[in-house]
Design brief:
single chain; 191 residues
């Protein structure tokens, strides 16, 4: 599960980082849905997600429903297999006006990032994290294309270590604006 947590945090950071830097396309604040498809070189993440699916399927219906509700309150859906043999996840996030207006997002502790414009509505992003708090060092690069104020697409390639071995993850991501009202989903950055 360690790699899944790492990958999901990188995916969310990539989306919010690039979205906030797209000055030529202002995203709408509110509830966003991020659909990500990830595939790792080792297959460990996919195996961990398959095992989690098996465990969820074997739960009593009440317990499974409780787990699904808990995840939904955090804006997450159950991971599933993707068409390319990787893992697919859907995450809902609440972006405030401050989130979409930021020109410079503070990097996570131990991480640096660089975002450059690659044309109208296109961004390139790279990051490097030294690895702290039990997380392995990681780095990555990618690109994002803004589809106006309510949509974006991204492709990323990330490098990290899992159990001391190199791991590469390829990720595609689609973001779409759902509503001005975030409902139960809390903003990305609590004031």
């Amino acid at each position: 599960m360690h790699i899944i947590r790492t990958i999901m945090s990188v995916a969310l950071a990539a989306a919010t980082l690039t979205a906030a830097h797209a000055a030529d396309v202002k995203l709408r604040p509110g509830l966003w849905e991020l659909q990500s498809t990830m595939k790792t070189s080792s297959g460990q993440m996919e195996a961990a997600m398959a095992k989690m699916q098996e465990q969820l399927a074997s739960m009593p219906p009440e317990q499974r429903k409780q787990m699904e509700q808990m995840m939904a309150q955090r804006g997450m859906s159950m991971p599933s297999a993707s068409a390319n043999g990787g893992a697919a996840t859907t995450l809902k996030v609440c972006m405030t006006q401050k989130d979409v207006d930021m020109d410079n997002i503070p990097a996570q502790e131990g991480c640096t990032h660089k975002v450059t414009r690659a044309g109208p509505g296109r961004l390139k992003v790279s990051f490097r994290c030294e690895g702290k708090a039990g997380q392995p060092p990681s780095s990555g690069e990618g690109s994002m294309t803004m589809g106006g104020p309510t949509a974006f697409d991204g492709q990323y390639q990330m490098h990290t270590q899992v159990e001391g071995k190199p791991e590469q993850m390829d990720m595609t991501q689609k973001g779409r604006w759902l509503s001005a009202d975030c409902g139960q989903i809390k903003p990305l950055r609590q004031e």
